[in-house]
Amino acid sequence: SQQGEEDPQALSIQEGENATMNCSYKTSINNLQWYRQNSGRGLVHLILIRSNEREKHSGRLRVTLDTSKKSSSLLITASRAADTASYFCATAPVWGNNRLAFGKGNQVVVIP
Amino acid sequence: DARVTQTPRHKVTEMGQEVTMRCQPILGHNTVFWYRQTMMQGLELLAYFRNRAPLDDSGMPKDRFSAEMPDATLATLKIQPSEPRDSAVYFCASGLTGPKETQYFGPGTRLLVL
């Protein structure tokens, strides 16, 4: 079963604005990852944050992790039309299934 | 620029036919994953291998699906016989370390079973 749940499910913003997506999960995690999928393509890894980290940056991306609330957020600053994609969070549980659990994705449309 | 490759990229077949999808993982990666993506179910893990050994195929319908790694450079996913409900995009991904770490996805095989 998929554990990560992204919120909001769909987001439409103007180019230059910031986009924020949230992901909630249920069980203790080893790490949480964010992936991007452009239409008709495979998923591309964006960033990995470990359970002992609270914030991580990569270019225009900022990820936060709150293990007490079992949630993470992905912020894309100064969005571009090329950021239009689906964004997935994936959680790696500490125990049990030795796999990543992907959420259903969050569609982001950046209007030029 | 190392990447995962998959063939074919598109496949249209008739119900009952055998379908074989191939994947070449990134050289040196020791974990390989097969996923299926549909609008209704999202991304589902079908099977994964570590050092060519199948470790988990619990997500795969056993009666018609099979996954193998004949060697370190090739992973295959077969469906026999195929059914219309198998229509989906099938992704292969590989990883350098364990299954909980970063995965690198191929472009996918878009399968349509008529």
The computed structural class of chain A is mainly beta
State the helicity of chain A in percent bands: under 10%
Give the tally of β-strands of chain A.
11
Mean pLDDT of chain B: 94
Runs of chain B in which pLDDT lies below 50 for 5 or more consecutive residues are none
Number of contiguous helices of chain B: 0
The helix/strand order of chain B is: EEEEEEEEEEE
Q: Report the sheet-strand fraction of chain A.
A: over 45%
Terminal CA distance of chain B reads 36 Å
Q: Determine the oligomeric state from the structure.
A: heterodimer
CA radius of gyration of chain A: 13 Å
Cα-based radius of gyration of chain B, to the nearest Å: 13 Å
Describe the structure.
The complex is a heterodimer of chains A (112) and B (114). By secondary structure, chain A is mainly beta. Chain A has strands at residues 5-7, 10-14, 19-24, 29-37, 43-50, 55-58, 61-66, 71-76, 85-93, 101-102, 106-111. In chain A, the strands form two sheets. In chain A, strands 2, 4, 5, 9, 10 and 11 form a six-stranded mixed beta sheet that branches. A five-stranded antiparallel beta sheet of chain A has the order 1-3-8-7-6, with no helix packed on it. In chain A, a hairpin with a 4-residue loop joins strand 7 (61-66) and strand 8 (71-76). Chain A starts with a strand and ends with a strand. Chain B contains no helices and eleven strands. The model of chain B has no long low-confidence stretch (mean pLDDT 94). At the A-B interface, strand 4, strand 5 and strand 9 of A face strand 5 and strand 10 of B.
